[in-house]
Design a protein that fits this description.
Elements: E1 17-31, E2 36-37, E3 41-42, E4 46-64, E5 72-76, E6 79-80, H1 85-95, E7 105-113, H2 124-142, H3 148-162, E8 174-177, E9 191-193, E10 206-210, H4 221-227, H5 234-254, H6 257-276, H7 287-303, E11 308-311, E12 317-321, H8 326-337, E13 346-350, E14 356-357
Parallel strand pairs: 5-7
Antiparallel strand pairs: 1-4, 1-14, 2-3, 4-7, 4-8, 5-6, 8-9, 10-12, 10-13, 11-12
Helix pairs in contact: 2-3, 5-6
The structure holds (3R)-3-hydroxy-3-methyl-5-(phosphonooxy)pentanoic acid.
The site of (3R)-3-hydroxy-3-methyl-5-(phosphonooxy)pentanoic acid has 15 residues, from helix 4.
């Protein structure tokens, strides 16, 4: 489906006012998106697990107004947040060609995250996804014939325009974003649920997020993506990622944990290798990140328990494992890994299914 499918055409109904509320989760990429083209088009396809507990909850109040134009108030944790407004203003400007009705309303946005603000966990994916689904709920009110498939695709399409990885936080437990020949209906414009038969071993996967550094990132993802433009290894990376996605697809379908671990850890280290070999170069890992990785490797080889790690664009470590091993792995987390975390903090999360409407 091309982008023109997502241009809203007036169907004759106007809502005067109302409120909606949605939650949208964070997601963790296993095959990483790092590098993009104009218009938030990813340089390579990516695949993620959707999370459950790390999420943003957003209420959208809307009221029809006389003067056309983008107009909104923003509250984060109940407080007016001027510093977050430029990002939302930019998002509204980007989605305006597809959602011209936003000019007709004044919006009041109340948003909060279930994870601590300063946890080093990016809230842009869940935040943009939560706002996008609310706007789609409004659009559905204007166009009641809309089906669920279009709702999810356009919500993902809009979320992508806010923050690329946000398009993987709308629906599905495993989501692919970016055109890939082996993933049916995959697109550069929105995320689609993984179409393979997920092996039971992966169906309730756990993700313990080890909070190594809760501060703001020194280099933003936007800058990191941009540095892939003149990157000496970019071309190889953009060929490697789809090949890794093909191999991961097979592993997810066959339950091949060994292959899964090798691909996922290699993807995480490759992401950081890209950062370290950019010009200017930068390092987001901390000494504790490496300590934790070493401990994960020792634990896996000593006890033959299939745990592995992945990394986001930051120092925190995501520890991934099948639910069957939860009791033993959580002991390991408490005793061995937590001491390497800032204030011993970690978040135990697990695979989830995407955005959810919350009745008001
Ligand atoms: O969505 P962005 O622009 O914040 O980029 C996210 C990039 C990574 O989190 C590092 C990888 C990914 O695929 O989510």
């Amino acid at each position: 489906m091309g982008q023109e499918t997502f241009v809203y055409e007036f169907v004759g109904k106007k809502l005067t006012e109302g409120s909606f509320q949605w939650s949208a989760p964070s997601n963790i990429a296993l095959v990483k998106y790092w590098g993009k083209r104009e218009g938030q088009i990813p340089a390579n396809p990516s695949l993620s697990f959707t999370l459950t507990h790390c999420k943003t909850i957003t209420r959208l109040d809307f009221q029809l107004k006389e003067i056309s134009g983008i107009s909104f108030d923003l509250f984060f944790d109940g407080q007016s947040k001027e510093e977050f407004k430029p990002k939302i203003q930019k998002f509204f400007e980007r989605i305006r060609p597809y959602c011209p009705y936003i000019d007709d309303y004044h919006f009041v946005i109340h948003t909060h995250n279930t994870f601590p603000h300063s946890s080093g966990i990016a809230s842009s994916a869940s935040g943009m996804a939560a706002l996008a689904v609310n706007l789609m709920q409004l659009e559905q009110g204007l166009n009641p014939q809309m089906d669920a498939n279009y709702f999810n695709q356009k919500a993902s399409f809009l979320a992508r325009l806010g923050s690329g990885s946000a398009c993987r936080s709308i629906s599905g437990a495993v989501v692919v974003w970016g055109a890939h020949s082996e993933i049916a209906a995959s697109s550069d414009y929105y995320g689609v649920p993984f179409d393979g038969a997920l092996h039971p071993i992966f169906q309730d996967f756990q993700d313990v997020i080890l909070l190594v550094d809760k501060g703001e990132k020194k280099v933003s993802s936007t800058v990191g993506h941009d540095l892939m433009h003149q990157h000496p290894f970019a071309q190889q990376r953009f060929e490697q990622a789809p090949a890794n996605l093909s191999r991961l697809k097979t592993a997810l379908e066959t339950g091949d944990l060994e292959a899964f671990i090798a691909i996922v850890e290699s993807e995480a280290l490759t992401l950081h290798a890209m950062m370290m070999t950019s010009m200017p170069y930068f390092i987001l890992m901390k000494p504790q990140t490496l300590q934790i990785i070493e401990h994960i490797w020792s634990f896996r080889s000593q006890f033959q328990i299939p745990v592995c790690f992945t990394l986001d664009a930051g120092a925190n470590v995501h520890l991934l494992f099948p639910k069957a091993h939860k009791t033993r792995v959580m002991e390991f987390v408490q005793e061995v890994l937590a001491p390497w975390c800032q204030q011993q903090h970690f978040i135990a999360d697990e695979m989830g299914f995407g955005a959810q409407k919350i009745d008001l």
